[in-house]
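Take one record.
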Amino acid sequence: MYFGRHGCKQHIHGKPIRFGFKAWVAATRLGYCIQADLYEGRSEVRETGLGEHVVTKLTQAVQNVYPDCAFSVFCDNFFTSPSLLSSLQTKNVKITGTVRQNRVDKCPLLDVKSFKKKARGFYDYRFDQNDSICAVRWNDNNVVTLLSNEFGVQPIQKAKRYSAAVKRRIEIDQPNVVAQYNRFMGGVDRLDANIGVYRIAIRGKKWYTSLLTWLIDVTVNNSALMARSHGANIDTLEFRRSIARTLLLKYGTARVHPGVPLKVTSNVPLSVRRHAANHMIMVSQTRRRCAFCKNKTVKMCRSCGVNLHDKCFEKFHA
């Protein structure tokens, strides 16, 4: 975590963590991070809106790695617009997402005020044959509008909702595009949830500390998902523990307790330490580490020229 000031830190009111660095992320349904791009502010020249620019940039980066694959992208109302669906239609990318009411380009759907008077499950849709875009407005607990160039209204699904009038759960009509969106959306939220369970809790005074720890968390999350996809029956906590054990066995060293070192390290020759005369403890001008127990002291041996505690003097010369 980093609580200092930086020009790239953002403020998003209403978020659980309002201040911090923002990253645009493309993730799978289960939270596997495919592509990420740190937001640096208005640093790039763009001809479209920010949401459309971000989706285009992330999909282009993924298509550079997998040029022959077709992709289905699900995004929320910050990114979705008719121009985004039209521009990516030619690049073999299908888009499905919720859209804000002022971004439907005057699509003649029934207005929201009239929609709220309809029964739950009522829907209205329009289809643009030129760009193969389906616009659907559906009345659930609230009125929601979606755009898609991959899914349409048919086949009509059934969704269970609680009815206060009859005091039981009932089934209402649900367009297919809504059902598909509910199934595949939320991959970035799933990624954040996976990371948040066992996040690296390190606070630093350097701005890049939080970015490095976040990248490590994302890497561990991806590795755990990949291990489970190959048949490993292991949860995230045990996976992190296995990583820690492997690193300690390979790079770790035995813990040295203060005052009881495993090995005395000193540049003083053994002949001087054990056989030379004039060993006398005295007070030094500089506080240094003891040559035997490694704790700091101002006492030193006049003959050996190293700092030593009174209790370490005899042991060092034995």
Notes: Confidence is low (pLDDT under 50) at residues 260-264. DSSP finds nine helices and 13 strands in the chain. Residues 270-317 form a domain with the Wheat Germ Agglutinin (Isolectin 2); domain 1 fold (CATH 3.30.60).
